[in-house]
Amino acid sequence: MRKQDKKARRAKILLIVFKFIALTIILFFVINTILRPIAFNNKIEQQINQNKQTEQTNQNEQTDNKKQSGRNEKHSNEKQQQAAKEKYEKFKKEYDKLKQKPQKTKEDIKLRKKLKKQLEHWKKKTDFKGENHSSKGKGYK
Description:
This protein is mainly α. It has three helices and no strands. It is elongated, with a radius of gyration of 39 Å.
């Protein structure tokens, strides 16, 4: 009987070991199928972030180089626009001060009109994006 008991114990132990191995394999595949998409998504997010960073650096390089041409590109000088904006703000402050003055003399009214014209002029300069060079197609009709 002892030989049969030993064989039965060995069979039980082998069955337990087999079940343990089968469970670990199943758990491995289940965990792998759960975690693989998460890792894949993280990898995709990293690639997207890298692409965004490279696009931003490319855009910065393009704006720095500013040698752009084409029918739909900006044609006006950005430095001129910036200077015009600063002058516009300066005249706007003076105009607002004069406008808020309670009692105005004739000279104040004339000065206010001049400042108003200056404001309109510099506002046009700041808003000027460039000429439209031939926005219509040139093909045969």
